[in-house]
Amino acid sequence: MPGSGEARGAIGRASTVMSDPGSTIRHVGKVIDFEIWRSEHRLKVRDLPEHPTDASLRRLEHAIQRLDVLVARGTGRLSSRVESELLAITRAVTAGLTEEATERAERLVERLEHPSARAQ
Question: What CA–CA distances, in Å, run from 6 to 13, 14, 15?
C-alpha cells in the first residue's frame, strides 16, 4: 500500500500459521561405532592370480617390444582407439593382471601389423 511505510512487495502481516519442517538430517546425534562400521563395510578385494610365471612375463615383454617398434614406426600420432588400448594394457600391468595385459598387447600388435593399419 503506497504511503503506508511498508517496503514495496512486503507482506502486510506476518504469517500466523507456521509449520515445523521435518528433519532433513536423519542421523544427527546417533553414535557410530567405527569398529562395527568397518567390519560391515570391508572392501571386497578379489583374489589376484599367483605370481606370473617367467613364461608369461616373457610373452608380455615380447609383445610390448613389438608394440614399441610399431608405435615408433607410425606417424607419431596415435588413434584414440590405440591410445585407449595402451592405457588398458598399462592398467592391467599395474593391477598385476599379467595375462590380461599380455592378451591385450598381443591383440593390439596383430591389429597394428595388419596391412590395413599401415595404409592409414
Answer: 10, 13, 16
Q: Which helix (H) or strand (E) holds 77?
A: none
- This prediction has a pTM of 0.54
Q: Which residue has the cell 507456521?
A: 18
Nearest-angstrom CA–CA distance, 120 and 91: 27
Cβ atoms within 10 Å, residue 82: 18
Quote the pLDDT of residue 109.
93
b (16+ CB within 10 A) / e for 38-77:
eeeeeeeeeeeeeebeeeeeebbeebbebbeebeeeeeee
> Is the CB of residue 58 less than 8 Å from the CB of residue 99?
no
Would you list the domain boundaries of the chain?
54-118
Give the pLDDT confidence of 26-63 residue by residue, as tens digits: 666 677 777 777 777 766 555 555 567 788 889 999 99
Q: For residue 104, give the C-alpha cell.
A: 591385450
Identity of residue 101: A
